[in-house]
Amino acid sequence: MKKIAILSLNLISFAAAANIGSVNFEGLNYLSDQVAMDISGIHPGMDANAENINEAIVRLFSQGYFEDVYVKQTGNTLTFVVKEKPSISKIDIENVVTNDKDAIKGLIGIKAGQMYDEIAISRAKARIKQFYEVKGFFDTVVEEKVENLNDEKSSVHITLNINRGENIIIKKVNLIGAEKFDYGDFEPVIENKQRELLGWMWGFNDGKTKTFELPNDANKIREEYYKKGYLDASVSEPILKADMNDYSADITYYISEGNRYKVGKIDIQYPENVNLDKEKVIKNLKLQSGDKMNAAWLRKDMGTLEDLVADQGFAYVRILPKTRQDKENSIVDINYIVIPEEKVYIRNVTISGNDKTEDRVIRREMYLTEGNLYSKTDFIDSKNALKRTGYFDEVDIKETRVGADQIDLEVVVKEAPTGSITGGIGYGSNDGLLLSAGVSEKNIFGTGLQGSINVDKSDDALNGRISLTNPRVFDSKYSLGGMIFASDYDWDDYDEKDYGFSLTAGRKLGRYTNASLTYSFTKSKINGLDAFYKAAGYMDGDHTKSSIIPAISFNNTDDYFIPRSGIIAGASMEFAGLGGDIDYMKARGNFNWYYGLRDYIDWDLIFRYKANVGYMWNTDDDLPINEKLFLGGMKSIRGYSNRSVPKKRICLYGRGCELIGYGGLMSFNNSAELSFPLIERLKMRLIGFFDYGTIGDDSFTEEYRYSTGAGIEWMTPIGPLQLYFVKPLNEKDGDDTNSFEFSIGHSFN
Fold first, then answer.
1. In this predicted structure, which of 7-16, 499-508, 655-664 has the lowest mean pLDDT?
2. Of 103, 207, 383, 594, which one is least surrounded by beta carbons within 10 A?
3. Pairing outcome for strands 392-403 and 406-415
4. Which secondary structure element, helix H or strand E, spans residue 307, and what is its range?
């Protein structure tokens, strides 16, 4: 009111003035007269009327710089008298943790250097309260303290003292009207959960209210009903009843379930330019006529249809599920309507993120290149092929439409640490002091070459090997590799020295299949083989093995380190006897199956099944001890020492009996594993497993062992690490067992 009255009096005195001679400002500290004049819009020569002066005052106030503005006149001179707001010199936020403090500074909207504004302060306090409400804290109190830093009161220090409120803890979630489902069915998907006993301690549900997620929780409950075929289900908005005396709450949903629908007729409508065997496609869909309706399976079938059409070049296609509900009989018919756009061709393929890996190494794994007709299968296979190389932590292929019938692809990779320098020292009950050192690289100079040098030393053994492999010679389908090795073992009952080399040539037969042929040459010298081993049929002295090993392998997994889908399988046959004095045939086979369960339980749970089989034909009944089949170790039966199963009791007249490592001519081992995330941001997972294996000379079941345990899989900066805690379940006399196993640098497959 004061400002208005002053303005009105001055307007009266200016009413007779024709124009303004000069404009002055009093009270400016931070703004110059010229800037203030520009803001006001008043300049000498303008008419000195009420409208112009009123607009000038409004403009000055609107900047937020001033607490008061009035006008006085001396002759034809117009003077604006202003009182500037103090500037904010410093802002402190007290009584909060550092992480919260940094977040609050970014959201309050005030900072040092700005003019002090009570409205802005009030807005900042409201934002702080909202910030803590989102985190589940209610009744937060924010008090501001404003201190003048000089006598002119032109600079202030603001302190925001925050008394964070309390969490409202959910004691009970009520589902009124729910008969087919209970709280446990919805708990995995909703955000506002009942508090569990000691949940705050064990990392389970702490019951904290998340108000901003409440509307979404109702939708998530409704979606769970839809997934199970309750298409008429309705879920009310949540009713939160809070008791601010003890900061507890109940949440209530009112639910009408309706009937569960079955799938009736299934049909697909598509234009003539789309080639589909409708009957075959329908037969292979997850949802079949007569099944209970499942919305999740419906979406999966939509994705299947989309991929089939996209394989024909229709990169942009919509699948619309048109449903017709027979409410009386609770039957729903489904008609999938396929709406494709034009066929799309690849214009450009660019690559980014590869600081080390050469572009050509990436391009040779791509099945989509410039000029190709778009294919969804080729798109997925290209991405998975790049992941299987082990060169990258992350692979993404971005699509950019550049025309009605053209698309650009950008391959974006995040390179993984492919090289490692390892060293270690330890102690084993059987091996004594253990020393190891090694250098390995899966992607030498970014060319895709793979090489390693490793040395292991224990009380009983010294091993060394050097290997180098080119998986794509001249970027072709051919591979070439070689290895040299040497070993010196000082066992309790004999000494063994080995050295040799191997050469391997291979060819890529298909997207997932490779064939190889290996030549291996080994010189062995076994000394001091005691009478018990000789009685068991083992060969003493110098031996030479020359063999060829044809092999075939299959791999269609989606990742090198942690596959979630696909199969790794292989078979080989070693023919020993191409020269030398060792003659046998050895067949080996492996099968690994990986299956992610996220589609079914909305959790990154991975099931793995792994199996290995071996079979030998010994043409002369005598073998060096190191050539037979054994079980035990991390790749066989965990909890039993490497190559420790089986042992055989050999008795000699006058010398008693002794258990010796005997090996076998046929073996089979398999394992079942479940892997699930422990700390996702660290790529750390927890695994539970069961291992089982059998071995023998005349049958597979002469000896068998099994174990169970749990462990940790962790993608560390220096490579994959595995820690296992194992319990052997049928340990027998003479078995070498352990309860802890460890490895680093090997993939989890």
1. 7-16
2. 103
3. antiparallel
4. helix 295-310
The answer to whether residues 165 and 139 touch, using CB atoms and an 8 Å cutoff, is yes
* CA gap 453, 745 in Å, rounded: 13
Bridge partner list, 162: 142
Instruction: Count CB-CB contacts under 10 A for residue 591.
Output: 16
The amino acid occupying position 626 is N
- In this prediction, residue 5 carries a pLDDT of 35
Which range of 83-92, 119-128, 224-233 scores highest in mean pLDDT? It is 224-233
- Contacts of 446-455 with CB under 8 Å at 24 or more apart are 446/354, 446/356, 446/357, 446/358, 446/361, 447/358, 447/361, 448/357, 448/358, 448/361, 448/389, 448/391, 448/472, 450/481
Q: What is the dihedral of CA 37, 43, 47, 53, to 10 degrees?
A: 0
pLDDT tops 80 at residue 435: no
CA–CA distance, 517 with 477 (Å, rounded to integer): 14
Q: Which three-class secondary structure state does DSSP give residue 391?
A: coil
Report the candidate in 599, 661, 604, 611 with the shortest Cα–Cα distance to residue 635: 611
Residues with Cβ within 8 Å of 585's Cβ and at least 6 positions away in sequence, in order, are 573, 574, 575, 576, 616, 617, 619
E strands along 177-236, which residues? Answer: 234-235
Q: Are 256 and 233 contacting, i.e. CB atoms less than 8 angstroms apart? A: yes
**CATH code assigned to 345-415:** 3.10.20.310
Structure confidence at residue 334 as a pLDDT band (50, 70, 90): very high
User: Which token pair is 257?
Assistant: 């379930």
311: Cβ contacts below 8 Å, ≥ 6 apart: 375, 376, 377
H/E run at residue 574: strand 565-580
Class of domain 2-84: alpha beta
- pLDDT for position 567: 94
Give the mean model confidence (pLDDT) for residues 676-683. Answer: 80
Amino acid of residue 258: G
Backbone angles phi, psi at 135, to 5 degrees: -85, 0
- Confirm if 731 and 737 have CB atoms less than 8 A apart: yes
CATH architecture of the domain with residue range 473-481+491-744: Beta Barrel (2.40)
**What distance in Å separates the CA atoms of residue 125 and residue 104, rounded to the nearest whole number?**
10
CB neighbours of 220 closer than 8 A, spacing ≥ 6?
Answer: 186, 189, 190
Query: What residues does each domain of the chain span?
Result: 2-84, 87-166, 168-256, 262-340, 345-415, 419-470, 473-481+491-744
Confidence at 418, pLDDT banded by 50, 70, 90: low
152-181 pLDDT, tens digit per residue, is 677 788 888 888 877 788 889 999 999 988
Give CA–CA dist 253/162, Å, rounded: 34
Higher-pLDDT residue of 425 and 224 is 224
pLDDT of residue 202: 46
Exposure string (b/e) for 95-120, b if CB count within 10 Å is 16 or more?
ebeeebbeebeeebebeeeebbbeeb
CA angle centred on 356, ends 350 and 361, rounded to 5°: 55
- The CATH homologous superfamily for domain 168-256 is membrane protein fhac (3.10.20.310)
- DSSP annotation of 98 reads H
Fold annotation for 262-340? Ubiquitin-like (UB roll) (3.10.20)
Domain 345-415 shares a fold with domain 473-481+491-744: no
For residue 106, what are the contacts with CB-CB under 8 A and spacing of at least 6? Answer: none
Residue 6 has pLDDT above 80, yes or no: no
Q: Are 318 and 380 in contact (CB under 8 A)?
A: no
Q: Which two tokens stand for residue 719?
A: 């490579």
